[in-house]
Sequence to fold (170 residues):
Amino acid sequence: MYVKMLLKLSEIWSLIQSTHRELSIFKMRLFVTIILIGFITVAKSQTLHLSMGLEKTAPRCLYGGGLTFETKGKWGLGAFYQTGILNQGKESGELNDAFYGVLFQIPLAKSQKIDFFATARLGMVNENFFVVVPGLETRIKTWRKLSTTFGMGYRVGYPSIGLKLSHPIL
Fold:
């Protein structure tokens, strides 16, 4: 009787293992499919914008850059990095307030020469605090492949203004 029970348990165990392998294969296929869809979406995006800019917040001035994928409908997803210089540390060149993270852009109005966006920057400040910065941007095509972007946002409890130059690299 114990032998039959052990054989039955071993059959159940082998069934569980085969099911687990099938689920692992399914999860791997699902993961690969999601990654491929992501790459196809990125490959179909119209442009990849490289930007450099300045932002004036209440306590200080920040500078940095970003990289944004922009679809044909002008929706954008990207990454950014900003840092500032302390007023007391100007002589020493001491950097502070590193702010980096993800950028989302949603078109509000668009044309050939001027575009208006609602933006959200989500990221970490000084590797300690998670920050969400909502904003509005106006991008003006100033030259063939160069755009100037004027932005305003709400950061550190105060309004901020910014200026960026961006260039499509794809």
